[in-house]
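Quick entry between incubations.
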Amino acid sequence: MVKPLSVLRKLVYLVAMLCGAVLAVTGFYPVCVLGEHISGYPMMLHATCAPVFAACMAALAVMWAGRCCFEDGDCPVTKRLVQWLTGSKDPEQKEKCKSSGVGQKVFFWLLVVLALPLILSIVVSMFPLLGTHWQKVLLGVHRYVAGAFVVCGVIHAFLLVRGRAK
Amino acid sequence: MAKKLILIGVLCLAALAVFVRAEGEEKKLGDESDGSRAHPVHLIPLLTEEGEKVASDDDPLLPFSTKETCGECHSYATISKGWHFNAADSDLGAEGHGRIGQPWILVDGGTGLQIPISYRPWPGAFRPEEVGLSSRLFLKIFGRHLPGGGIGEIPSDDPDDIMRSMVSGYLEANCLACHDGDAGHNQGEYAGQAMRENFRWAAAATCSFAKVTGSAKDMPDMYDPMMPEAPEDPKLVPPGIKYGANTFAEDGSVLLDIQREAPNHRCYFCHSDLYLQDDHAEKWTADEDIHLKAGMTCVDCHRNGIDHNIVRGYEGEVSDNVMAARSSCKGCHLPEDSLTAIPEAGRFGAPVPEHRGLPPVHFEKISCTGCHSGPWPGKRTYLTKTAMAHRLGTVGVNKSPDALPHIYSPAFAEQENGQIAPHKLIWPAFWGDMKDANITPVGFDNVREIVGKVKAPASSVWGDADIIARLKALAAAGVIKGKAVYISGGSLYRLGDSGELITEADHPAAKPYMWPIAHGVRPAAQSLGIRYCTDCHATDSPFFFGGVGVDGPGVVIEDAGRDMVEFQDVDATYAKLFAMSFVFRTMLKIVSLCACAVLGLVLLLYGLRALRCVVRVFCS
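Done. Structure below.
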């Protein structure tokens, strides 16, 4: 039997993927290919998909955060580092990584962390708070964080698909 | 012997050439400042155009010549190449004439004329000779607001005009138009003198100490002002001048109140605007430019040296004037990006604008004047009067709000550099000769002779029959080589094969002439967008969807449906959709901020849990 929460999670993830793709294309194509600011219909599409994407990100964070907590055996290297720092010994020092989804978890949390400056940088600029200089800084932050976000998103999706395939 | 003579001749010519060159380059007393900011006193002799000193007991009394009087200490040849005098200078090139500006507008309500003309090669403006105006006729009509010089001094090729020039003289560069600080200076008198063809007397007539009477246009071609004879007709008064009793000092000098920096009210004579808004139709109800109210003067920004190459002050101005780049909006208000350069911004205490919440893309798409200059836009453009177009400040001016020409503003249109800026706009109206796709205006004299004689319509608005009658009259007169057409209100009117009137809307030859508005600058608190984005991004915002007035003499087009957006490089549907999207802008902000709050809470919650785990590990 298919769990409703699982279906919802997938649906939200798909919507987020779709909106993310539209945002990436409409955001990067004018800047990277045409060498101009985003404007016109791409701008409108970008602004339309952005709140949907932000809502999906928030929903995914809530729904996936519990599953993406790091566990005891996720990363032996970290564990050994902690043991070395605390001076404790562990009989299973040669233990290998138990979890195959650690990469997914890392990139999930990276996405959640990056989503905050990504959204805030543009929302804050919509309020009459900051002058032209800081507007440009925020636009730069939005642009570079978006680049990092897209890279993380692609890797996360790749790891997710690979994990499912195994 | 012959060889010796030739050698002497060659040597003399060479010496003369060197002498002429040296004289051309020689700086005169007033060409270069010694650095003192004090005003030099101009207690000087007045000189006639022959270079003779004017004395109160001269017979006949002649007007003083600015060329000779001022030229004694200032290089007139250099000055008369300056911006206000060089419109007809063909050596200047398109770049030298700079950004498109206000044309002269030839108006004749009776024949339905409203033609933008200029000696400058600005697109959309006709050269005066194209509409049948000789330089003399041009001076007679527009000399009222000309500073003289340039076309006023270029000898005509026409023998009749040459003869008339002997009578009326030339319209020399009128230094006093800008530099006379005397409270009794009357520039309106200059306008009257130009209309009476008293070109030689025009500058002197503006002085408080001189009185000019008579009219050169009434004098016969053989009239000699140097040896005047009473005209046969006793009603006609020959041009003459009288100087006030206390004008001349003992040594024959005259005290002129010359201001190095031209006072604002001198500039205003030619550069005044009146926007006929519903609630600001009177001058006293509208504010002046914020810079002037802050205590600045026109020439604080519009500066020049002895070459009178005055700064126009627009962005990207190509000029030899070293102050040009520093005198634009950005030049004064925005600090340089480079920290190593000497700071030049902030002159006169110009505040650095913050533009809080304004996306930087606006600075690429819109000029500074787009939000800060001209009247606050309404649902429709306002009928606008300008000094140069409506003879403001002269005697007997038509004060009717409907007085021709019909100039509309502010029209937000794309300017040459691709930015949207407020413009003044006029729809050309003229009778033309159409051959293939080319339309040339019919000469002014022919239009008055042929079209002007057709029976006047009952109302001020022409019907089809009125236009048909005039087109037929033009076609029958034999002055048209192709088809007779009438351009007005953005449309072309011509006769069909069976004599019916055919109207071609939006004809390229009928497109409006627009020139950017620079003043009056409004303060930041009254700039577009100060309230919210919807000052411009609303479905009914004047910036995109304000109606642009469309009409011409005799042709009134009610609700022509020309939105501002049609004059911008913006898709109208997109502009509408984008404006509609601002309805959801608040929702976008709320959703995005809520999403950020949830993301922040998740990070905080799981971050704390992670911290607890780490602490536990370290503790155990």
